[in-house]
Amino acid sequence: MQASETRYRRLFEAAHDGILILDANLGQIVDVNPFLVNLLGYSKEMFLGKKIWDLGLFRDVVSSQGAFQELQEKGYVRYDDLPLETKDGKRIDVEFISNVYLVDLEKVIQCNIRDITESKVAKEALIKSKEDLEAVNKELENYTYVVSHDLKEPLRSIEGFSQFLTEDFGDKLGDTGKEYLDRIVKASGRMSNLITDLLTLSRIGRKDIEFHMVDLNNMMKGIEVDLAEMLKRSNGRIEYKKLPTILCQPTWMTEVFRNLIENGLKFNKSQVPTVTITSREKSGEYELSVSDNGIGIEPKYFERIFKLFERLHSRKEYEGSGAGLAITKSIILNHKGKIWVGTSEPGKGTTFKFTLPKDNQVP
Ligand code: ADP
To answer: What is the C-alpha separation between 89 and 81, in angstroms, rounded?
Structure first.
């Protein structure tokens, strides 16, 4: 008994939370720990023997004897965020929990008082900086949209006049002139693709997109039609069965699957390039996998490939701008999911995985 009493005392004295012990019948304060004395700035004597409702300090919890009765009957009371005033008039915010215990057949009430002022300020600052960041992102998105849109205009002029040059002065240009012109046309074509990718990226976060229930099996059928030419050329296959019906933005989700499937077929040297789509139900989410029997990716590049315009190969080896996975990731994030390289082995193939919450809220 003695040992356990000593242990309790030590905890009480050293606690980094305020503790107040009350006689449950009389409502009188019988003990207060040093932390609370320090936190509130009143002396220990100021507390001892006082009825808690007379103290005024905790008027939001116990303003009267009646309220105290209620506290005692409930047994457990908790306030997550309660304002208190210290002796020197400073306002602090605390979490207040009170429990009724039986000690030697006597009922006592223990009140634990935790100062949450700093964590509350930090939380509010975090919310504020998140809001600021969102506003900056939104502005950046709009800016990207406007700039990419405006860049299309002069590019159309370059493409148009290059064509006029070929048509009207082609015979005067000579072989070198024609080759230069050809390069200009190709470069502006690539630039046009890059601008289209930027425009796509800047549109993903827009609020006006609508979410619908979509049967992914039907979506795959549509993608097979879209990629028919590529499948025929590469002798490729897309395999899937029993995929779920999910709430998503159909156009963007099609873009996700099309990007991943196209990559699986493109970065592939197998006789029969095959991309397999499977789904696994987990608590609260679907985990989708897109696997291929392609060239694979070295683990050190698993993160880098999701960055905008990052590519591991030259355009001569494999066509592409390096925006596909950045767009894919952005769409998945907008659907509140995650995407990553599940497994990949150079020469054997790659599995991309991503999650989609089942109760996807329309953003
Ligand atoms: P792009 O396909 O236009 O090159 P992506 O953003 O889709 O751009 O992909 C970025 C890079 O990641 C690719 O250039 C390629 O090196 C690598 N990659 C993507 N998917 C695969 C895959 N299924 N197998 C092997 N490498 C891949």
So the answer is: 18
